[in-house]
Amino acid sequence: MKSNLTIGQAAKKAGVNIQTLRYYEGRGLLPAEARTEAGYRLYSEESVQRLRFIKNAQELGFPLSEIARLLKLRVKRPNQCEKVRKEVEARLEVVKDKILGLRSIEKTLESLRQACKTRKISSDCPILESLDNSKIKGEKHGKQKQ
Question: Where in the sequence is the domain holding 46, given as residue range(s)?
Answer without folding.
Answer: 7-60
